[in-house]
Structure formats: structure tokens, C-alpha cells
From TrEMBL:
TM region positions: 110-140, 161-182, 433-458, 479-504, 809-829
Keyword annotations from UniProtKB, A to Z: Glycoprotein, Membrane, Signal, Transmembrane, Transmembrane helix
Location of this chain's protein in the cell: Membrane
Lineage per the UniProt record: Eukaryota, Metazoa, Ecdysozoa, Arthropoda, Hexapoda
Organism: Anopheles quadriannulatus (Mosquito)
Protein name (record): Prominin-like protein
Signal sequence, start to end: 1-29
Family membership noted in the UniProt record: Belongs to the prominin family.
């Protein structure tokens, strides 16, 4: 029997209909019994999450993209080649390649990083040595340490080209310096706010778990209570529903209607007597009114004719005083109800009521038996339903308690660690920030020196030794040399920091950020999955579930769980049941067995077997004869039309009070005179009579007429039962009652069983529909994982986008500057030498003279190169400083007479003195050109003695 019920219930499940809207209707019953479907309230608790995935790179997005592309060039998709790491059951061990010292695949994969690291280490070691060599070289006068005061032939072109190249290099340096400062600031901001993002993530995760717990409790507890209340009401109304359907199908309710009519016969008799009394009163009152109106009419006609005024004639015509009567109503035409009342009295005194009552008792006994049978089985079905609800509630409590424990554990263990992290960040992160700020400041200092060197070198004038400006070309050269010195002093340290940052940033981005963004296909996530081994944890939980008291069984097949799949499923906003594959230790589909396990199906089947009916005899032959007598009684003679057609509410054609008021008004206007005064008095007296008739006769007649019409109409409805006549109604009653008796005795048992089966199936259907709701909600609605993935994304943004990307951007900006420092050193040293020269190109003759000058240690600015008049205008001095070759050519020519001030004051010969100075072969004769004296002449040796 249980199998049959389960099979029928399975077929009924195909009729389920889930209604949209604010409620969920979980079962669609058969329309025969019209069982009301349970309307479950939806869980709709709005929560506000704090985690945010919004991110603004603030202009650094292209740099971060380029940096990530550079890192991709150095790191392979699988960062760890096969054979170097073995992860098993929470342990990490070296692979076979490590034990065999087979490092070839690893070196082949990371040769680029190793090459970069080796080059950087070589540069770190060489740059101090190169700087020391350059310093020594310049100290000994080489490498531009000392140079001729005159430009060489192509120095102007060299200066322009080198200046342009240094401008390009310096302009590019601006980008690197800005990147270093900005990324260092962004990175510090990300570090300081990482715990805030973590707190938001913890808060949202706890809120998600608490909301999921509340949703589970709503579906498994509150919704079941709603179902259980409806099922109890359904059981409580079960017997009435069965009896009602039986009466409707067999038409047996007509017996009740007939019995109620018989019970109302005394009342019908009373109504008839009341109608008879009202009819008699109307006849008497109408006669009195008619007599009174005739007297009033006679007096009014006499007085109004004697009056003769226009107003009197108008009143007589308007109110038709000559036809003043009872409006032509003949109350004697109303039927006499005495015989009908006597017939009803005989029926009430007969055994008609008791005969019909016996049939009613038979039906009541049938109803009582059905009701008693149902009531005896209701407690058992309710107990089974309560047991099912308790089991479902236990499952709900188990799930909610676990989720709440996880939420509490997460909060208790997370916030204190985040507070500790805040302390460490506040205490130590500032040092990293200052270190980055220091490196950025050094880069900025070098940039400023280069910029000032270029500005002074390009815009300043040549150094002339006489009141030099603070920003001449010589100062520009010194700025450039200073920048070169700073580069050599800090290059190795900055490069070491950049190399370490490159390695750390590359490792972090590949091991953490890339893995978190693509967890499904990532090698590191696979290693982590093997290390954590969720399947081993699920095996323990599965064993606990098998030993637990809950009736929810585990699934037959164990589905493997992987971290990457969990994250991807969460990204797709799957439910927590599917994301974590909870069916491995709690299979929600086994809840379908609860009705069978807790006896609901068994008790419903027993209820269906116990509901039976016996044969009945509704009407005996004597009762039938009594009903036939009722059919042939005088009640058939009652005709409501004789009352409605002969009665009216307009007793008189005009309201008597209205006529009386008009008469009083006319009387007041009758002119004075002895005869006219009598007319006036008579009009007022008749007006008083009319008012008295309206109050004492007409108004009571209207009330009696109204009551009489209502009684006749009601009685007509009670007697005909919607048929053409009373006799036809009674005849139809007899036919329907006989048919009902035949139907109950012949088909009643089968019909009751069918209706009972519908009731049981509807009950079963309600339960299985709720179970379907639970399964569908668990697998598709409860604990949608989108909020948790939003937390996951916010953590990635807070760590990778706001910390790792600026960190990689920082070393990228520093490396960019370091690469530009190498050409800047060459350009700076070259330009500093060129900027130190004080005079333009003098021509080939003077240049050759200086090539053979014995006094190479003299000042760079010859005395002969000074201007002849220091008070020249500024315009002349500028022109002279730009091109002074004419002076040199003039002074170097043989025909030029030199100023005596510049003649050599030293004696041509003295004792013990060295031989006379010999001019170079290409120099002019001694008589024509003499070397200017040195700035300091100590005198002849004899003078010192």
C-alpha cells in the first residue's frame, strides 16, 4: 500500500506549479476538492556589503600594463618545471630533478632572469670602480679635468649635439622620477588600507554566512511551519470536505433544504396570519379615509366656489378637489388567506416533520461516522507530520549552527590579527616609504642637477674670469659633474634595490596575483590544492555525517573538491551547496524519504482505508406520503401577484399635508367680509382635517402596505424555491432525494473512497511539493556565492592592484632612470668640459701657438684676450664675448705694434740664467712677437742673494 501511495504521489508531482510573486505556491491540487495550496513566504532579507572592487589607477594603468608584460617575458606560464617539487598530503618535498642535480630545465626556463641578475651584479660591482677611475683621471688633468680655454674647431657643434641628447635623456628621466614618487606614494596608501579592505572582507563574509544561515532556517523551519499549519487545517476540515462533496454529488442536501422548510412552517403560518391581519386593517382604514375625504371634498367645493377668487379657483383645479378620494384602490380584492392558514396548521400538526427528520437523522449518522473516522486518525497523521518537521528542524539547526560557528570563528580569529597587522604597518611601513622616498629624492636631485646644468650651459655666457655670473656655462659644467658624481656614488645601491624589487615583485605577481586571477588553470593553485587536500577534510566530514543522528544521508558518489573549481563556481554565483559540494556529506535529496520514514504516508494510507459509508434510507414511504400531502396543500393557492398588483404606496393622488398647506395659504389671502370670513374659517378647518387624515390614516396605510408586500414576496420565494410553483418545487425535492438515496447506496462507497484518495493525495502532494521547494532552494537559491566572490575580488584589488602593481611600477621607474643615467654620464662629462671653455674658436694660427706653448700651466684666460676698454657698453661686451678672434688676429699679426704693458719685463740675459727663450719654428720672430710675462716674476737669482 505504501508503494501504491508513493507511486501515486510521484504521478501527482508532475502537476506541481510554482507561482511567481511575493509568495511561492508549492502544490497544485486537483480541482475536485479544491484543496488550498500553501503559500510560502519568500526569504527577502536585504544586506549591504562593504567590500568594493572599484579601482582607479590614477594615470598609472599603462605603466602597470607594460610592467606586467615585461614580467610575462621573464616568467613562464608554469613557473615551476616538473620534477622539482612534490606535494602530497600536506607535505612539500624536493622532486627527482633536485636529487639528481638536474638543474637544466630550471636554468633554461629562468635564463633571462639570471642574465639580468648577473648583469646587474656586474654593474653594481663596476660602477664604483668606474667612478673612482673617472675621478682620478680628472684629478690628474685628464678626462676633461683641464682643458684649453679656446674652443676647438667643432666644439660648438659638439656642444649642440650633446646638449640635445642630454635634453632628451633628461626629459625621459622626468618620467622615471615622477613614476618613482607617485608609485611609492600609491604603494604606501595601499599598504595602509590593506587591513581596512581585509576588515570589510571579513565583515561581508560573516554577513554572508549569517544571511545564509537565516535563509536555511527560513526554508527548513518557518516554511515548514506554514505548511504544517495548512495541513492541520486540511485534516481538520477533511470530514466536512468529504461530506460536502458527497452531498453535492448525490444532491442529498435537498433533504436538508426540505427539512428546513418544514421547520419553517410555523413561521410561514405566522406570516400568513400577519398578512391576513394587515389586509383586514387596510380595508377598515381605507373605508374610514374614503368617508372622511368625501366630507372634506364637499365642504371644499362649496367654499372654493363661493370664494370665487383666482387663487381659490387655481387650488381647486391644481389639486383636483372634485376627485379627492382613495385613489381608486379596492382593498376588497385582496385574497383571503384563511384557508391557506388552516392548511398550514394541519401540516404542522401532522407527522410530516418527524418523517422528514428521520431521513435527516440518517444523513447525520452517515456524516457522524465519517467525521469520527477522520478525527480518530487525525492525531496520528499530525504526529507523523510533527516528527517530520522536527527532523527537518534538526537539519536546519545543524546547518545554521555550523555556519554561525564558522562566522564567529572567522570574526574572533581575524580581527585581532588585523589589529596586530595595523600595529606593524604603522610601525614599520613608514621605513619602507622613507626608503622609497629617499631613492626617489636621489633621482630627483640628479635630475635637478642635470636640468640646472643644461639651463646654465645653454642659457649662460662663457666664463671670463672677471665677475662671472652665478649661472654661466662654467656653473652648468659643474652641475653636470656634480650629477655625474652623485650617479656614481648611488648607482650601485639603487640598482641593488631595483634588482631586489624586481625579483620580489615578479615572484609576488606570478605566485599570488596571477594565480588568484586564474585559479582554475594555475600550477601554483594546483600545488596549493594538493597541499591543503580538501578531499581528505571532506572524507572526515563524510564519516561524521554518517555517524550523526540526522536522517540526511550522504551521496553515493564522492565528488572531488578543488580550490580552483570552488573559486570559479563562486564567480558564477552558484549556491554554497554546489560551490562546496556539500552533498558529499549532506545529500539534501534524501529529504524525499522523510514522509515515508516518519510515517506520514503510512498514516494517510490507513486513513483512506478506514473511511467507509453504509447504506441509508433517507425517506420512508410514510414520509413520502406526507410530503405529497404538503405538495397538494393550499400553499399552492398562494399568489403573490394579487398582493403586489392591488397594492400601492400612493394612497391618495396628492399628499394631504401639501393640500392642507396650500389651503391655509389661500385662506390667509381671502379678502375680509362677513361671508368671506366664514369661507376662510371653513378652508382652515378642512386643512386641519386633511392633515389629520394624512397622519392618522394615510401614513399607517402606507406602512401596512409596505409590510404586506414584503411578507408576500418573502413567502413566495420560500414556497417556490426558484421553481415556477410550490408544487413543482416539492416534486423536484422528492425526485432529488430519491436520486440521492439511490446514489449513496449504489455509488456512495466508491465516491467516498475516491474523494478520500484525492484528499490523501492532496495532503501527500503538499508535503512532496514542500520537499521539492527545499531541494530547489538549497541547490539554486540558498547562499548564492556572489558576495563572497566580491570579497575575493576586493582582496585581489587591495593587494595586487594597490600594492603589487605600484611596487612593480616603482622598480620599473627606477630602472628606467638607471638606464638613462649611463648615457647621461657620458653626455654630462663631455658637456662639462665644453662648458668650461671661456673663449670661442680663435682660428688655426692661435690654436697652433697654444699647441706648442711651454707654459701649459698658466691660466686658461690669456691676458691678451681681455677687452681693451672695460667701460664699453653692454652690447659691445656681448659681441666681444661671442667672437674675439679679431683681437687675437690683430695682436698676432707681424705689423701690429703691441702695447708696452705686455712686453716681457724679464732681462734677456743674466748671470747664471738659463739660455734665452727660443721661439718655436712656426712662431713670429722675437723682434716682432714676445711672450707676455707670467703673472708672478720673482726676479733674477742675483737679486735674491
Amino acid at each position: 500500500m505504501a508503494t501504491t501511495i508513493a507511486s501515486r504521489s510521484g504521478r501527482l508531482l508532475a502537476l506541481l506549479l510554482i507561482l511567481p510573486g511575493a509568495f511561492v505556491a508549492v502544490a497544485q491540487a486537483e480541482p475536485i476538492l479544491k484543496i488550498r495550496t500553501t503559500e510560502f513566504t519568500r526569504f527577502n532579507e536585504a544586506v549591504e556589503m562593504q567590500s568594493s572592487t572599484s579601482y582607479n589607477a590614477r594615470g598609472m594603468a599603462p605603466l602597470y600594463e607594460i610592467t606586467n608584460r615585461v614580467i610575462d617575458l621573464f616568467v613562464d606560464e608554469n613557473p615551476i618545471p616538473d620534477g622539482y617539487i612534490t606535494v602530497k598530503e600536506g607535505a612539500i618535498a624536493p622532486g627527482p630533478n633536485v636529487s639528481d642535480n638536474n638543474w637544466g630545465p630550471l636554468l633554461k626556463q629562468y635564463w633571462a632572469i639570471l642574465l639580468v641578475a648577473a648583469l646587474c651584479i656586474i654593474m653594481i660591482a663596476l660602477m664604483p670602480i668606474m667612478g673612482l677611475c673617472l675621478c682620478c683621471c680628472r684629478c690628474f688633468g685628464g678626462c676633461g679635468g683641464r682643458s684649453q680655454p679656446f674652443d676647438k674647431k667643432h666644439d660648438t657643434c659638439r656642444r649642440a649635439i650633446l646638449g640635445f641628447l642630454l635634453i632628451c635623456s633628461t626629459s625621459a628621466l622626468v618620467f622615471g622620477v615622477v613614476v618613482a614618487f607617485v608609485t611609492n606614494s600609491y604603494m604606501q596608501h595601499g599598504v595602509e588600507n590593506i587591513t581596512t579592505s581585509a576588515r570589510h572582507g571579513v565583515h561581508d563574509t560573516r554577513l554572508y554566512l549569517q544571511t545564509t544561515s537565516a535563509h536555511i532556517d527560513h526554508v527548513l523551519n518557518k516554511n515548514y511551519q506554514e505548511l504544517n499549519n495548512d495541513l492541520k487545517q486540511l485534516l481538520h476540515d477533511a470530514s466536512d470536505n468529504i461530506i460536502k462533496r458527497l452531498e453535492e454529488e448525490s444532491k442529498a442536501e435537498k433533504l436538508t433544504t426540505l427539512y428546513e422548510f418544514v421547520e419553517k412552517l410555523p413561521g410561514i403560518k405566522g406570516s400568513l396570519e400577519k398578512m391576513k391581519q394587515l389586509t383586514s386593517e387596510l380595508r377598515i382604514t381605507a373605508s374610514q379615509l374614503n368617508d372622511g375625504l368625501r366630507g372634506v371634498k364637499r365642504e371644499l367645493l362649496t367654499s372654493l366656489n363661493k370664494c370665487g377668487t383666482q387663487e381659490c379657483i387655481k387650488v381647486m383645479d391644481d389639486y383636483k378637489i372634485g376627485r379627492l378620494n382613495v385613489n381608486g384602490i379596492d382593498y376588497n380584492s385582496l385574497p383571503d388567506l384563511s384557508q391557506i392558514i388552516e392548511s398550514v396548521k394541519q401540516l404542522t400538526d401532522s407527522s410530516l416533520g418527524s418523517a422528514i427528520h428521520q431521513g435527516v437523522d440518517q444523513m447525520n449518522a452517515l456524516k457522524s461516522t465519517l467525521r469520527q473516522t477522520v478525527l480518530q486518525n487525525i492525531p496520528k497523521v499530525q504526529a507523523a507530520s510533527d516528527s517530520t518537521g522536527k527532523a527537518i528542524k534538526d537539519v536546519s539547526n545543524m546547518l545554521t549552527s555550523r555556519l554561525n560557528n564558522v562566522a564567529d570563528t572567522l570574526g574572533n580569529n581575524s580581527y585581532k590579527h588585523l589589529d596586530t597587522a595595523d600595529e606593524y604597518i604603522e610601525q614599520y611601513s613608514i621605513y619602507r616609504y622613507y626608503a622609497g622616498l629617499g631613492i626617489s629624492s636621489v633621482l630627483l636631485l640628479i635630475l635637478m642637477c642635470l636640468v640646472f646644468g643644461l639651463l646654465c650651459g645653454i642659457c649662460g655666457k662663457r666664463p671670463d674670469g672677471y665677475g662671472d655670473d652665478c649661472c654661466n656655462k662654467g656653473a652648468g659644467g659643474r652641475f653636470l659633474i656634480f650629477s655625474v658624481a652623485i650617479i656614481f656614488l648611488t648607482f650601485s645601491v639603487i640598482l641593488a634595490v631595483a634588482l631586489a624589487s624586481f625579483l620580489v615583485g615578479t615572484l609576488t605577481r606570478r605566485a599570488a596575483c596571477d594565480s588568484l586571477r586564474d585559479p582554475a588553470n594555475d600550477q601554483i593553485i594546483n600545488y596549493l590544492d594538493q597541499f591543503v587536500d580538501l578531499n581528505r577534510l571532506y572524507a572526515d566530514l563524510r564519516a561524521q555525517a554518517e555517524r550523526s543522528r540526522t536522517k540526511l544521508q550522504v551521496s553515493e558518489q564522492v565528488e572531488p573538491v578543488h580550490i580552483g573549481e570552488v573559486i570559479v563556481a563562486c564567480q558564477q554565483n552558484e549556491t554554497i551547496y554546489k560551490v562546496l559540494k556539500l552533498n558529499n556529506f549532506i545529500d539534501i535529496r534524501t529529504i524525499r524519504d522523510f514522509p515515508e520514514h516518519y510515517g506520514i504516508t503510512r498514516e494517510l494510507a490507513a486513513l483512506k482505508e478506514k473511511i467507509k459509508i453504509q447504506s441509508v434510507q433517507i425517506l420512508t414511504p410514510e414520509a413520502t406520503e406526507d410530503i405529497r400531502a404538503l405538495q397538494e396543500s393550499k400553499l399552492n393557492d398562494f399568489d403573490v401577484d394579487k398582493f403586489t398588483d392591488n397594492l400601492t404606496f400612493n394612497i391618495t393622488e396628492y399628499n394631504l399635508n401639501e393640500i392642507a398647506d396650500k389651503l391655509r395659504e389661500v385662506a390667509n389671502r381671502v379678502p375680509s367680509g362677513k361671508e368671506m370670513n366664514d369661507i376662510k374659517v371653513n378652508l382652515k378647518n378642512q386643512a386641519l382635517h386633511l392633515s389629520s387624515y394624512q397622519t392618522n390614516l394615510v401614513d399607517p396605510m402606507i406602512a401596512s402596505t409596505n409590510e404586506l408586500i414584503k411578507l408576500s414576496t418573502t413567502l413566495d420565494t420560500s414556497l417556490k424555491f426558484g421553481e415556477k410553483s410550490f408544487s413543482a418545487a416539492i416534486d423536484k425535492f422528492l425526485t432529488q432525494i430519491k436520486d440521492a438515496e439511490e446514489y449513496i447506496n449504489k455509488y456512495g462507497k466508491t465516491f467516498v473512497q475516491n474523494v478520500t484518495e484525492e484528499l490523501v493525495s492532496g495532503f501527500n502532494n503538499q508535503i512532496h511539493s514542500y520537499i521539492t521547494l527545499v531541494i530547489e532552494s538549497t541547490e539554486g537559491d540558498i547562499g548564492l556565492c556572489g558576495p563572497v566572490y566580491n570579497v575575493y575580488e576586493s582582496v585581489i584589488v587591495a593587494s595586487c592592484n594597490r600594492i603589487v602593481d605600484p611596487f612593480n611600477g616603482f622598480w620599473a621607474g627606477v630602472v628606467w632612470c638607471l638606464l638613462l643615467f649611463l648615457p647621461s654620464i657620458i653626455f654630462g662629462v663631455k658637456l662639462s668640459t665644453l662648458y668650461q671653455k671661456s673663449d670661442p674658436y680663435p682660428g688655426p694660427m692661435v690654436e697652433s701657438e697654444y699647441l706648442y706653448d711651454a707654459y701649459t700651466e698658466r691660466d686658461n684666460i690669456p691676458l691678451a684676450s681681455g677687452p681693451k676698454n672695460k667701460r664699453r657698453k653692454k652690447q659691445d661686451r656681448r659681441r666681444e664675448s661671442r667672437d674675439r678672434r679679431e683681437i687675437y688676429y690683430e695682436e698676432g699679426s707681424p705689423s701690429h705694434s703691441r702695447d708696452p704693458r705686455y712686453n716681457d719685463m724679464a732681462p734677456k740675459n743674466w748671470d747664471g740664467a738659463p739660455p734665452r727663450y727660443q721661439n718655436p719654428p712656426m712662431a713670429p720672430p722675437a723682434a716682432e712677437y714676445e711672450r707676455p710675462p707670467p703673472y708672478y716674476y720673482p726676479g733674477a737669482p742675483s737679486e735674491h742673494e
